[in-house]
């Protein structure tokens, strides 16, 4: 099971991860916000994206990171969005090599 050994901020302000498989990845806040998997952003039945990307500020910031058990993190953003739970495997896919 993929899990982060370390979560950090990069010099560029990205959210970074050091994973238990030895890899390191990072992602900017806006990319994470646009990929939010919550029911407000993605239709639970169809999987259709509901989030209008134009409503997310280009300079959106990550405000809070909360561990959700052993499988995910909850992320809060400066645009007021706080309901996204990001499973570690989704985060690993979203992030690129750091």
TrEMBL record:
<feature type="domain" description="Gamma-butyrobetaine hydroxylase-like N-terminal">
    <location>
        <begin position="10"/>
        <end position="91"/>
    </location>
</feature>
<keyword id="KW-0479">Metal-binding</keyword>
<dbReference type="Pfam" id="PF06155">
    <property type="entry name" value="GBBH-like_N"/>
</dbReference>
<dbReference type="GO" id="GO:0046872">
    <property type="term" value="F:metal ion binding"/>
</dbReference>
<dbReference type="InterPro" id="IPR010376">
    <property type="entry name" value="GBBH-like_N"/>
</dbReference>
<dbReference type="InterPro" id="IPR038492">
    <property type="entry name" value="GBBH-like_N_sf"/>
</dbReference>
<keyword id="KW-0408">Iron</keyword>
<protein>
    <recommendedName>
        <fullName>Gamma-butyrobetaine hydroxylase-like N-terminal domain-containing protein</fullName>
    </recommendedName>
</protein>
């Amino acid at each position: 099971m993929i899990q982060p050994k370390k979560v950090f901020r990069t010099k560029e302000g990205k959210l970074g991860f050091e994973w238990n498989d030895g890899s390191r990845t990072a992602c900017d806040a806006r990319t994470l916000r646009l990929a939010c998997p919550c029911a407000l952003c993605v239709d639970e039945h169809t999987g259709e994206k509901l989030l209008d990307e134009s409503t997310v500020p280009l300079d959106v910031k990550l405000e809070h990171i909360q561990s959700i058990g052993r499988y995910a993190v909850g992320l809060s953003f400066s645009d007021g969005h706080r309901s996204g739970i990001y499973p570690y495997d989704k985060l690993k896919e979203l992030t690129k090599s750091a």
